[in-house]
Amino acid sequence: MDIKSLEDRFNEKIDKDIRIEPKDWMPENYRKTLIRQISQHAHSEIVGMLPEANWITRAPSLRRKAAALAKVQDEAGHGLYLYSACETLGIERDQLLQDLHSGKAKYSSIFNYPTLTWADMGAIGWLVDGAAIMNQVPLCRASYGPYARAMVRVCKEESFHQRQGFEIMLTLCRGSEEQKKMAQDALNRWWWPSLMMFGPQDKDSTHTEQSMRWGIKRFTNDELRQKFVDVSKPQADLLGITIPDKDLKWNEERGHYDFGEINWEEFFNVIKGNGPCNKQRVDARRNAYDNGAWVREAAAAHAEKKAKKQQAA
Amino acid sequence: MDIKSLEDRFNEKIDKDIRIEPKDWMPENYRKTLIRQISQHAHSEIVGMLPEANWITRAPSLRRKAAALAKVQDEAGHGLYLYSACETLGIERDQLLQDLHSGKAKYSSIFNYPTLTWADMGAIGWLVDGAAIMNQVPLCRASYGPYARAMVRVCKEESFHQRQGFEIMLTLCRGSEEQKKMAQDALNRWWWPSLMMFGPQDKDSTHTEQSMRWGIKRFTNDELRQKFVDVSKPQADLLGITIPDKDLKWNEERGHYDFGEINWEEFFNVIKGNGPCNKQRVDARRNAYDNGAWVREAAAAHAEKKAKKQQAA
Amino acid sequence: MKDQNLYNYVLQHADSSLILGQRLAEWCGHGPILEQDIAMSNISLDLIGQCRMWYQYAAEIQDEGKSEDEIVAFRDAWDYRNVQLVEQPNGDFAQTIFRQFLFDTYSVHFYEMLINSKDERLAAIAGKSHKEALYHVKWSGDWVIRLGDGTEESHDRMKAAIDELWSYSGELTKPNETETKAFEEGYGVNLAALKEKRDAKIREILTEATLEVPESTYTHEGGKDGRHTEHLGYILSDLQFLQRAYPGQEW
Amino acid sequence: MKDQNLYNYVLQHADSSLILGQRLAEWCGHGPILEQDIAMSNISLDLIGQCRMWYQYAAEIQDEGKSEDEIVAFRDAWDYRNVQLVEQPNGDFAQTIFRQFLFDTYSVHFYEMLINSKDERLAAIAGKSHKEALYHVKWSGDWVIRLGDGTEESHDRMKAAIDELWSYSGELTKPNETETKAFEEGYGVNLAALKEKRDAKIREILTEATLEVPESTYTHEGGKDGRHTEHLGYILSDLQFLQRAYPGQEW
């Protein structure tokens, strides 16, 4: 078949919402875009382990310690699914990791912010996972099969995390004055970065249109962001803490909340590398990888020895 | 002059209590014994920094933090004096350190015990420095000049440390029940190892006789140990805590306190390397040295560059 | 207190599980291989789950209305009864593996034997924990073999780990008064019998890993009676920070 | 509270001195050269001495009968006002040196200028501290030169240290509201003027050390208003442990 027919068939599948599978023909750009998007997502899970891991040893109760550990472990698991989905597109996990460590590949900028109090474990679950779910649920219907299936598993666990995070916030907000202050402080620090998680405004977003056509993006950044604000405001009210945006108010006409201008300078600055923890996060991952080199080599060497012995026997 | 005359002259000086100085002739065994003794003492100061340094970052007040830091710094200073005294005998500090790291050279076994609570900072000052002073004061009259002069400086600071340690204990003993329990616990753990600091019983001590003749030891181990017990018992009474020895009681006839049998098996075991912290202490010193190699090399390289520049100018 | 010896016995196992779980949790996000990061979190989770069962039972025996978290947060190091092995630093992956292996070879047999405890609660805790310990010892044993019989570097690192930790192995099987009494009263485990099984397992795995079993029988001890290494204080200052800084709150 | 802005101003300098002193104290017994171990203890001692003067003054301004130690022990990280630079880990000796150098080039000029404060207490603290800061900046500056212009390895390590820490430099000279007001009211220092002097000093020393002054002007900030890096919490959990575990005691 010539390229033209292949393309037609591919587009037909996309139009009919038939999943593209690894062995199917696909346009090179589709493949590349998917690798970028899925690996970025995988990296976000892995880097995203770090800010929360920071509070496991200091969790205030054994129950919370176990929950925090299980949550971060889930994130590692999500990383695994997503790296595997990426590998079906013909690229090795090792290459993906090297791209992360060199700074070539990106991850969600939200993880360049530090976790400064226990309340951040609540705020991350509530807001960051909440925003992530909003981004991800539509991707359970992504056109690429392995990606869509990975997202189904991810989303199920994420919504559990989100409820858990909200419950941490709720406990704090019902607690002492200091605990409530802790919750408010966390909301103050995580609110705007969470809004930034949906990416640049639609008018500045470069990939959106093509990705929507390919069915690997289902809603625009601004649509999802609006949805997030609409969902979060009543939750903050329920908690009894205040979203740090004086322009946030219900717009009867639009049927949505209006909200203030995002500090896009900060957004692009953090993406550029100038966030509070960019260097620290990438260094931590690179160190884990580099310090683990001898372990991976040993495992490979032993596996080979074992295989030889079995062959000989 | 022949060896015999040199020896006679050396012995005459010793007999008349005239100090031996670095340029004077001395018997090879005297030199070797001194190197062993002084370097062992220097190493004890340096290794002895570690158990106390362990509580500086956790000192309970700024005043105590500063005092602890100053004390450990003094110990480093003592190490410096003593390494310098040793160097006058024709051996380099670097060689001495290597002997420490290889395990060839010894240091006082007391520092192989861990500091487990803040009260240990008191107990070490009170008991360990107290025992050290008893060992050291006579050495201010040691026959070797640089050693004797170093000891004068060391002893002056040590007795300050000893009072400071006692004062920490006193504060704890006048404090809460828990603080008093902390002080008693520290006494329980440090008492017997402190008695061991005076070395084996005279009947098992190998070097004593020759060293006494040479004037680099002034009292026997057992004499000093008895003196230490006699001084410490009333101090413990003053603090209101109990020395963990049921056989400790005043002997009217001897005019001294009788005390129980020391666990010499533990003593020799710890010397052999099987103390709670032997490996940890030597590893810490070796790591400091090894990790500092590049710093020493850089300092030397820079000094050389600078010297060359000054020559050229 | 209903039974001081039982309380001490329970507490010492609770503390060992907690502190080892805490140490393993320090690896979270920093493991050498993503799959092993997950495995360490898994074991850490099991250990924390186990220690909760132990602490809950301890709280009942103590009968002062304390929660598991109060028992954890408001004791200083000298009241902790964990073995000294578990408070040793993670070091490199080889050291973490060997520490785990030394603990797992103990705990798998400990729980196996504790199933027959005349104390039903202990038997129940043992039943649940034994299954987990079987998985743990499989994991750490496999890694001892892989690293010992891997590359020259990994072999050397395993040797260094053994050198570092061997002297903390013996405390696990050397009964203190509490354990002796617990065995005599029929609810504790016979450590002499356990030691035999464990020694055989250690020998088997180290041999397969082309590593030597050290000859030294010297062992650090005292952890089970509250005498620790200098590491524990630092572990507790993080572990207890929030409860101590904001006492009496729900979290 | 007599003067909230003065209190904040005093506290932020107290906290920076304390935390840097605490970090340096971690080196005690582990320095690369015995003489430098002593030098670091010396500087740490000076910093702790300085912070005590600051805290004592803070306690007077606050006027709630708190001791210096209560101010230190019973604030969580968000109430600490030190710059983020001083809470960065020691790293290797190059990193410690460069952190110290960045701080010293600030503090020597800060105290020099603060001597003219219209607040007599501040002027007195400055007079005493300035002499110490002169020695500190000489020491750290000499080491920057020695390591930068030493061996290839030491040069590379200095470059890595600069790379690690440069973005924490700017906070020292970027006034927050407290500092702006303090300057306007005549008791604080003019950070713009200080910055010029400090930049010149940094440039001079780095040049002599054959190192480049980075071009990036991006700076982390927020420490002076209570927003820190993830390191501070761990520092405080050790620093405050005893006071929190046994509150209200004399030590």
Automatic annotation (TrEMBL), chains A, B:
Pfam families: PaaA_PaaC. SUPFAM superfamilies: Ferritin-like (SSF47240). PANTHER family: 1,2-PHENYLACETYL-COA EPOXIDASE, SUBUNIT A, PHENYLACETIC ACID DEGRADATION PROTEIN PAA. NCBIfam families: PA_CoA_Oxy1. InterPro entries: Aromatic_CoA_ox/epox (IPR052703), Ferritin-like (IPR012347), Ferritin-like_SF (IPR009078), PaaA (IPR011881), PaaA_PaaC (IPR007814). Gene3D superfamilies: 1.20.1260.10. It comes from Ekhidna lutea. One of its GO terms (cellular component) is cytosol. This is Ring-1,2-phenylacetyl-CoA epoxidase subunit PaaA. GO terms for molecular function: phenylacetyl-CoA 1,2-epoxidase activity. One of its GO terms (biological process) is phenylacetate catabolic process.
Automatic annotation (TrEMBL), chains C, D:
SUPFAM superfamilies: Ferritin-like (SSF47240). It comes from the Bacteria. It holds the Pfam family PaaA_PaaC. One of its GO terms (biological process) is phenylacetate catabolic process. InterPro entries: Aromatic_CoA_ox/epox, Ferritin-like, Ferritin-like_SF, PaaA_PaaC, PaaC. Signal peptide: none annotated. GO terms for cellular component: cytosol. NCBIfam families: PA_CoA_Oxy3 (TIGR02158). This is Ring-1,2-phenylacetyl-CoA epoxidase subunit PaaC.
